[in-house]
Design goal:
This protein is α/β, with parallel strands linked by helices and 461 residues long. It starts with a helix and ends with a helix. Bound molecules: pyridoxal-5'-phosphate. The site of pyridoxal-5'-phosphate has 14 residues, from helix 6. Pyridoxal-5'-phosphate binds next to helix 6.
Length: 461
């Protein structure tokens, strides 16, 4: 079926399914009316906002969540990549109960905090690490340490990537197509000069624009060139080794090693942002899956077993700067509750065997979706990476942000209410992915595959 007909069909499906969704979520609508009085947009993070209102959840158990209207869904949203342990996992609940009775907060390092640091260093092959409370703080502190160690200000980041909401990195995060010079998106050498740094938020100081250099993902030569053009000025190259905010984009073979080599050559620090990849794509994150170590890496989300956490670490020659003048502190860093939940998650739940289970489920899910895509001629593909995966509405895999601009979001926006109406709780946005948990079962996966298969049939009918 041609794309224009598919888009028209998608618009019909989206209209009908959205109407159904709104008609059975009156509890969410009422809560939204209450929430907007105290919370801008009725939510606690801009990423949670919904149109016309978000679905508010009340409870989770195993692989299910319940909204405030009492409807049960299978959870494939996974708290934006956090809930790899699933909901109310007995080991996590036990650890939290015990910790709450012992110590909710000291602002003093505890034995559990040290044990968790050891578990993180072992699993991700870090020499040293420090705790923070979010992914934002993790990338912020890793960049500070890189700047302290090198005595340089500039950083290089990939076009389209998100690294949290601190000022240094809020540039060219999914920039609108009309600010990019698309004439030069041909993959040739001459293109690189046209990657410009665009602020993503109001309120970012102008002084910072000149400290961020934007290059395309999966182009090590562009990084090498930027480092040469800014010789002696670049502190760090920061990237999500697998881009996970435009669907999923894998690094090409050799790309990560080439980045490491060029950073070594130019005296810059290679920082992986593993906030999403770390606890999801393999037991040992990117270093295990793709075999290339960064100098520093940032973690958060899944490593806390659902609790508030962040961490960064890597080579001791860089980490030692936190003891030599690079500010790294925080009242709640490594607090007893997060440490207990994280320790239970990493040592008792997210074991090596757990990643085999997640990989098996992920492959079942992506293969099931691939079959439906092929049988119905939908311009889409799937990506399958352990607990993470997605359907991306473009036939060919993406290599960088500009490929994402060639996807067809209309198809996603028809699939979203369709899936939610069939009991599959999804992230609201085509830039996101599914997150599987150790508590998901074959039946949960089949339910997703069935709902998606029916969607593809409906779309192509
Ligand atoms: C790759 C990446 N880095 C950093 C962050 C920021 O993490 P947090 O929301 O915990 O501050 C996110 C959040 O989604 C992320 O996906």
């Amino acid at each position: 079926m041609d794309l224009e007909r598919l888009k028209a069909r998608a618009a019909e499906i989206a209209e009908k399914e959205t109407k159904d969704l709104l008609s059975r979520t009156s509890g969410s609508e009422q809560l939204y009316q209450r929430a907007i009085k105290t919370l801008p947009s009725g939510v606690v993070s801009n990423f949670q906002a919904g149109d016309p209102y978000p679905i508010y959840l009340e409870r989770g158990k195993g692989s299910s969540v319940w909204d405030v209207d009492g409807t049960e869904y299978k959870d494939f949203h996974g708290g934006f990549g956090v809930n790899v342990v699933g909901h109310a996992h007995p080991k996590i609940v036990e650890a939290l109960e015990k910790a709450a009775k012992n110590a909710i907060h000291f602002a003093v390092t505890t034995p559990d905090t040290i044990a968790l640091a050891e578990a993180i260093c072992e699993r991700f092959q870090l020499e040293q690490m420090r705790f923070v409370n979010s992914g934002t703080e993790a990338t912020m502190d890793a960049i500070r340490v890189a700047r302290a160690a090198t005595g340089r200000d500039k950083i290089i980041k990939m076009e389209g990537s998100y690294h949290g909401h601190h000022d240094s990195v809020l540039f060219s995060v999914v920039p609108e197509a009309d600010v990019l010079d698309m004439r030069f998106n041909t993959g040739g050498e001459g293109d690189r000069a046209w990657y410009t740094t665009q602020p993503t938020s109001k309120g970012i100081p102008h002084a910072l624009w000149d400290t961020v250099i934007v290059v395309p993902f999966n182009d090590a030569a562009a990084v090498d060139q930027a480092l040469a053009d800014n010789a002696g000025e670049v502190a760090a190259v920061i990237l999500e080794p697998v881009m996970m905010n435009i669907g999923i984009v894998e690094p090409k073979p050799g790309y990560l090693q080439a980045l490491r080599d060029t950073c070594e050559k130019h005296g810059a620090v290679l920082i992986y942002d593993e906030v999403k990849c770390g606890g999801t794509i393999a037991y040992g994150g990117t270093t295990e899956r793709y075999g290339v170590k960064p100098h520093l890496a940032a973690y958060a989300k899944a490593i806390g077993g659902g609790s508030t956490i962040g961490a960064f670490g890597g080579e001791a020659r860089f980490m030692e700067w936190v003891g030599k003048g690079a500010a790294q502190q925080g009242t709640f860093n490594g607090n007893p509750l997060s440490s207990a939940a994280g320790l239970a998650a990493l040592t008792q739940v997210l074991t090596k065997d757990a990643y085999d289970h997640l990989a098996k489920l992920g492959t079942q899910l992506s293969e099931g979706c691939d079959r439906a895509i092929a049988e119905n001629g939908i311009p889409a593909h799937t990506v399958d990476l352990g607990a993470k995966g997605c359907v991306s509405y473009r036939s060919e895999p993406l290599t960088n942000y500009r490929d994402f601009l060639e996807t067809t979001p209309d198809l996603y926006w028809a699939s979203y209410p369709w899936m939610v109406n069939r009991g599959i709780f999804m992230t609201p946005g085509d830039e996101e992915q599914w997150t599987l948990s150790v508590q998901h079962t074959d039946e949960d996966i089949q339910r997703y595959v069935n709902a998606f298969g029916e969607f593809c049939q409906e779309l192509s009918s």
